[in-house]
Amino acid sequence: MIVKDEENVLERCLSSVARLVDEIIIVDTGSTDKTKQIAGKFTDKIFDFQWIDDFSAARNFAFDKAVMDYILWLDADDIIMQSDQEKFMALKKELTFETDVVMMHYNIGFDESERVTFSYFRERLVKRSNKFKWFEPVHECLQFGGNIIHADIGITHAKPEENINDRNLKIYERLLADGKELSARGTYYYARELKDHKRYEDAILMFTKFLDSGSGWVEDNIVACSELADCYQLTGNPQKALQSMFRGFWYDTPRGEMCCQIGTYFKEERKYRQAVFWFELVFRLEKPTISWGFHQEDYWGYIPALECCVCYDKLGEYEKAEFYNNLAESYKPGSDAVLQNKRYFENKRQSAIPKEL
């Protein structure tokens, strides 16, 4: 792990992983709080690293300190839940040296019932002897290969709510000020940072540059089209927004997330028949089972079902509207939105019953 000023979350993280691993390596990049004292409860392998605005450099330094056969990496605001700890222990017993990389779910979004709604696979366990290296100063990535397996183990991102900071944005802009050229990945993540900071016109330029380069990873290309569409919507250019959404189909078969974005566009334009087409299309798509891209579960069932309910109600087709509300309930029983719709339809039926004189 690499850490800095993580006293609020570090003990929670290390407590969740302590019994799973044979060594814990902490690389501190300049903490001024109790981070190192907390780490000392779990390990004596605590190293200082002078921060140079480069996350990959710090992670490579941490990897170089490892001596065990495999390396697991985490961030301080990650935890491994009890059920996933048991799966992890089982994996350790089954793992053979033929495995170079173990991909695990990274769960970063949850609904009110703590059900995972947003996750994606990340390389989490890698064979040390392969000497895989981290690249990119911000939003770093590990370049890996070999025999890759996918494990049904989740790493839970339990980050406390906080305001968006400009640390990453400043790193990118210092690189550019120094005359450095961003990679395709760097351009993509710089564009996302610009969007997060509401610099939409700048973000449009960077997302467009990234997509036009033709060098992006397919999953990043698809998300970039969606993000670019958001930026155009937020700057009052709906036609460009729709074009950006359709551009996402160039890279792969339609995804539930993009179909819902297009459906929402038409719904907001009050073109409910067109909106329904895109929401219903989701139910005819093959949902990815092993994808390294972002996966938002609700967009593959619950959300399009709810949206179909709304659109069919607007079209006066109430039986279809109720059908889709019931379908939404099958995905998420007890949902407040579903229950509210049930009351709405019941009230509509009651008001249609003739009053006795």
Task: Describe this protein with a few key phrases.
357 residues; alpha/beta; 6-stranded mixed β-sheet; 3-stranded parallel β-sheet; 14 helices; 11 strands; 15% strand
What does it look like?
With 357 residues, the protein is an alpha/beta fold. Helices cover 47% and strands 15% of the residues. The protein is built from 14 helices and 11 strands. The protein has helices spanning 10-17, 35-39, 55-64, 82-94, 167-177, 184-196, 200-213, 218-234, 238-247, 256-268, 272-281, 302-314, 318-331, 336-352, and strands at residues 2-3, 26-28, 46-48, 70-72, 78-79, 101-110, 116-127, 133-135, 141-143, 148-157, 295-296. Strands 4, 5, 6, 7, 10 and 11 form a 6-stranded mixed sheet that branches. A 3-stranded parallel sheet has the order 1-2-3. The longest helix has 17 residues, at 218-234. It is globular, with a radius of gyration of 24 Å.
The structural class is: alpha/beta
Please estimate the helix content. Answer: 40-55%
The largest β sheet comes out as: 6 strands, mixed
What is the mean pLDDT?
Answer: 95
User: How much of the polypeptide forms β-strand, as a percent range?
Assistant: 5-15%
Order of helices and strands: EHEHEHEEHEEEEEHHHHHHHEHHH
Distance between the termini: 76 Å
Nearest-angstrom radius of gyration?
A: 24 Å
Number of strands: 11
What's the tally of helices? 14
Overall 3D geometry? globular
The stretches of 5 or more residues where confidence is low (pLDDT under 50) are none
